Amino acid sequence: MRFTKYHALGNDYLVLDPRDYPPGTPPETARIRVICHRNYGVGSDGILWGPLPSTRAAFGLRIFNPDGSEAEKSGNGLRIFARYLWDRGLVKTPGFTIETPGGVVEAEIKNGQQITVAMGRVSFSSDQIPVAGPPREVLNEQLTVQDRTFAFCAATIGNPHCVIPLPAISPELAKRYGPDLENHPNFPRRTNVQFMQVLDRKNLRLEIWERGAGYTLASGSSSSAAAAVARKLGLVDAQVTVHMPGGRLSIEIGPDYAIRMTGPVIRVAEGTMHPELFAVKV
Length: 282
Prior knowledge:
Elements: E1 2-8, E2 11-16, H1 29-36, E3 47-52, E4 59-64, E5 70-71, H2 75-87, E6 95-100, E7 103-109, E8 114-121, E9 141-145, E10 148-156, E11 160-165, H3 171-182, E12 192-200, E13 203-210, E14 214-216, H4 220-232, E15 239-244, E16 247-253, E17 258-264, E18 266-272
């Protein structure tokens, strides 16, 4: 099984091209878990399965988390996939479209490594995210896990997010409370969790617990959702730099909360997985 590995601010993905896997079906859940495992497999924060045919965009893409579940959208994953398409010569112009289960996005190759993705419009609607309870915009509500009650906002940019503004954040905070927040009954499809510290009107900091992946060094969709929440609350300007343990992303927030995200992608390796890999169950 062939793979190409990239990372975007330390958020790493394996691109598996269906053309290399007759009859073109993605690996089953058990194999995805092994492939992504840091000790028993190649190791990654997820799998990008594409390019796929699409009637709505130039290319289709499916995204799988390390636990085998499927993600609707991934900002870093989309930038990585855009770079893969460019590296493989599958696109001839810097701008093109990609369809995921979370919607169609526009990608633009800036200089090979810097890539912009128009992520779509952020919604705060409980029906769209989804969040349990009556229809509403989910802003400044309270949620209790373990020994703490957090004020949170929820958002979707094709996948669900729970954004928690705090005066101070840390990796330990995300690792302690992230799992319970991800699986809280308020979120019928689970959720990605962002602990957000607003530094000033042009900068915010995140610690991220990603649905199906756990603690993550960086996330494009998380950055998009958190920046939109901060803008909705009146805390930041329309142009924001999001600082994460893995690095920085530039986020442009439109008047309708449409997001343009720009950041780097690094090519790491390519190779072949040996069949012995799948003798291990994780």
